[in-house]
Write a structure and sequence with these properties.
Strand order of the largest sheet: 2-3-7-4-6-5-9-10-11
Number of strands: 15
Structural class: alpha/beta
CATH class of the largest domain: Alpha Beta
Bound molecules: threonylcarbamoyladenylate, magnesium ion
Number of domains: 2
Largest sheet: 9 strands, mixed
Radius of gyration: 20 Å
Strand content: 15-25%
Shape: globular
Order of helices and strands: EHEEHEHHEEHEHEEEHEEEHEHEHH
Helix content: 25-40%
Number of helices: 11
Length: about 350
């Protein structure tokens, strides 16, 4: 199959046409690119799993055309739950927040991998929104990467990941946030963060008691070893950045620009020269992908401050580096031969 990359209004028309006939399309969102299919068409859903090589046990996020669609996807367990969702929706939708809620019986089971919970969000990306409105149906969309691999933040990333298995990608330029949406569960007035993302703990605090449940989500995407590059990746302490490592080593730095440090590495990516965490998040997956594709033998990554969206960056970095010995910066033959 040869993949076509399309743009603008014409691209939106092509995407809608394909989705109407049960096809799947690579689409931009404000977080990362998604691989979308009609949420009410089990064949389209099956095509998403197949194209990604994703296990059928790993559920998909449903993207709503409008907040009002939620009642056809979700069956609220109480009026209290509905009230808190209304408040969260007013505050954060359209935007990078995903809510885990009881599933409506009419939504195909394949979407939620048999679970009685469904993840829903309303994306803020104008192209994705235009498609949802014209199609008049919600779209299920996981990130548009092969299962377990680095999430795509540009149309060409999607082509690298899925170009052999899908026929259409809508190019909407680089993604604004660069890391996936924040996923939360709602129990009474308790909000549990299952996956940290662009909507931060501080932003959510106003709407309930917030706690981090990251690591408690029992689905493959939340397992360590996800978001992984092919090269070995190790997180280092910022103060040992200047140790000369052996072999051809790539460095993913947060904000360092010292020339003498750069000279020790075969390739360097700086996430944000000014130390801006939002900019770092937007550059994160692209930098990891470029280092992975370069001719380095392994990659060292400098941690970023764990505040705001930095929590999400460190979450992805830890999962991506799973299998390496963290924090020491010293070469460990076992971890480096993973
Ligand atoms: O920003 C995002 O959320 C992007 C864009 C495309 O919307 N989507 C995304 O989807 O990151 P995905 O499938 O790559 O990650 C969703 C995560 C997975 O770890 C999945 O297992 C989990 O959410 N998930 C989805 N539905 C779930 C459910 N019903 N119960 C538990 N976990 C669920
Ligand atoms: Mg994903």
């Amino acid at each position: 199959m040869s993949v076509r990359i399309v743009y603008g209004e014409e691209g939106v028309c092509d995407a809608v046409e394909l989705l109407r006939h049960g096809g799947v399309v690579g689409l931009p969102t404000e977080t990362v690119y998604g691989l979308a299919g009609n949420a009410f068409d089990p064949l389209a859903i099956a095509r998403i799993f197949e194209a990604k090589g994703r296990p059928l046990t790993d559920p998909l996020i449903v993207h709503l055309p409008e907040v009002s669609w939620i009642e056809r996807i979700v069956q609220f367990s109480s009026l209290e739950q509905q009230a808190i969702v209304v408040k969260l929706a007013e505050a954060f939708w359209p935007g990078p927040l995903t809510l885990l809620l009881p599933k409506h019986p009419e939504l195909p089971e394949l979407v939620t991998a048999g679970s009685d919970q469904v993840a829903v969000r309303v994306t803020a990306h104008p192209l994705f929104q235009a498609i949802l409105h014209r199609l008049g149906s919600p779209l299920a969309a996981p990130s548009a990467n092969r299962f377990g691999r680095i999430s795509p933040t540009s149309a060409s990333d999607v082509r690298i990941e899925l170009g052999e298995s899908i026929s259409l990608i809508l190019d909407g330029g680089p993604c604004e946030h660069g890391v996936e949406s924040t996923i939360i569960s709602i129990q009474g007035d308790h909000l549990g963060i299952l996956r940290p993302g662009p909507i931060t703990i501080d932003q959510l605090k106003e709407y309930g008691h917030v706690s981090s449940l990251a690591g408690n989500m029992n689905t493959p995407g939340s397992l360590p070893g996800h978001y992984a590059p092919k090269k070995r990746l190790q997180i280092i302490d910022s103060d040992i950045l200047s140790l000369p490592p052996g072999g051809r080593v790539g460095l993913m730095a947060f904000n360092t620009s010292f020339k003498e440090i750069h000279e020790q590495y075969a390739a360097v990516e700086v996430l944000s020269l000014s130390g801006n965490l939002k900019e770092a998040a937007a550059n994160f997956y692209g930098a990891l992908r470029r280092l992975d594709q370069s001719n380095v033998d392994w990659i060292l990554a400098q941690p970023v401050p764990e505040k705001g969206i930095g929590v999400a960056i460190m979450d992805r970095l830890r999962r991506a580096s799973h299998g390496s010995s963290h924090g020491t910066g010293h070469q460990d033959s076992n971890s480096l031969l993973r």
